[in-house]
Amino acid sequence: MKAQPTLTDGPSDTLQVLRDALRVFAAERAWEPFHTPKNLAMALSGEAGEVIEHFQWLTAEQSAALDADTREAVALELADVLLYLVRLADVLDIDLDEAAQRKLAINASRYPADRAHGRSDKYDKLG
Amino acid sequence: MKAQPTLTDGPSDTLQVLRDALRVFAAERAWEPFHTPKNLAMALSGEAGEVIEHFQWLTAEQSAALDADTREAVALELADVLLYLVRLADVLDIDLDEAAQRKLAINASRYPADRAHGRSDKYDKLG
Amino acid sequence: MKAQPTLTDGPSDTLQVLRDALRVFAAERAWEPFHTPKNLAMALSGEAGEVIEHFQWLTAEQSAALDADTREAVALELADVLLYLVRLADVLDIDLDEAAQRKLAINASRYPADRAHGRSDKYDKLG
Amino acid sequence: MKAQPTLTDGPSDTLQVLRDALRVFAAERAWEPFHTPKNLAMALSGEAGEVIEHFQWLTAEQSAALDADTREAVALELADVLLYLVRLADVLDIDLDEAAQRKLAINASRYPADRAHGRSDKYDKLG
What subunits make at least 3 CB pairs under 8 angstroms with B? Predict the structure, then answer.
């Protein structure tokens, strides 16, 4: 018995709980044939588009002070993005957690804190 | 001491680990001013667009049988989506895990297993 | 001989010139099998994602004052969007010009100038 | 008086007609402050996302044989993409027609008909 679960220690991690729930959800509805990586990539992109529609006419300030209804709607859109993301990773047999940790490390080396300080330039422009 | 961690029981959950890591990452680089919800929604959508570019000319079958290089590239794009998603939820103070669980429940009621069986119709067309 | 060409009067209209050029382009490369509506919709979305990446970290003001290199890069991304849009409409046998005129009329009735004045609300919220 | 209008010869070209109509539309509603390039890039991407949602669960074959209702809905989504694209180009003072012709020429040199024949590889992989 572990007192300190690690990142990947089992079914209690959110990403794994969602992955498993989505597998069951798809199986119960016989949706696996629709869940090709190509189709799920489209669904992911479509949901990201719905997120953007909530923000497109807002100023930066307004986007940080959403009214309760919009914030709730955005929460459910972000949930949609997460669900399709987890499902897409699953059908591709990609470990999202591991990939995210790896990408964080890449970003840390691409964007050294001192050179990237206060700059939004892409890493290949940081000079 | 808990033997059974719950979904939200602490810093060991992937989504929370990533959230905290991204906070530190942004703070170290003084990137918070760039990380408005509006900007992060754009970044999320841009990354979803990069995912899609890997799949656009593939057949459904090809999309399920990526070569190793493409699969690795896709893994890092999915990681980018996850990182921006977690960061966006954080700056909006949205609990992604809770929202995803809630959306799953909504989907379960919108798509009853019997009526949605083998159909990709949107819920308002399930009749 | 016409002095006043109409919107749809022939091969000199930009949208039709591009449509015809893209048909030839695809035929010369035997790309028609790749140009399914589904694939072209993905390509369109991927290009829109590339547009967004140029703007995601810019303030509204900066987005209206692009440096020459960025502006040139954006021009070519917009061109990509237009090319895939024209090609997608063509394979679906949709008359883009006609559809755009029709949508403009719909928008004019959804957003009466007086009620929509200075407001970015969606039409169903204009009250 | 010209018998042979050129691509850019005046207000009868669809892209210019739409550009002018959108200028009037925005001015009548005092929407110019919302129409920053950043915001319009988001709107463009959001509309491309709506296009994709129509196709995400369809097979390639189904995507080429839309029922009448879906085809009509897609036509209006494509119109939305075109309208935002034209408006975005206008506020950036980008000549879409010229950019598209230029991009076509770039594509022709990147994808020589013989080497690109029947291949969907990106130009940097054509060898």
Answer: A, C, D
